[in-house]
Amino acid sequence: MTGAGGRRRAWRWAAGVWAALAVTGGGLTLWLQDANEPPPPAQWQEAPTPQQTADPACPVPVHATRPTPVFCG
What we know:
This protein is mostly helical. It has helices at 2-36, 50-53. Helices cover 53% and strands 0% of the residues.
């Protein structure tokens, strides 16, 4: 009968080791995800408007009633 008890103890030990590894791996995953995030911005910044970033050689439709495709090369 000691063989069945020993086998049960081995399974219980293996399940405990697996649970410990799973908890440790989950904790490491959460910790590394937090460490990988960039720092928050120091202040609010305004995004550049399309007029600021547009190519000056490309004409921009001023009074269009619907979106007008403009192709610049």
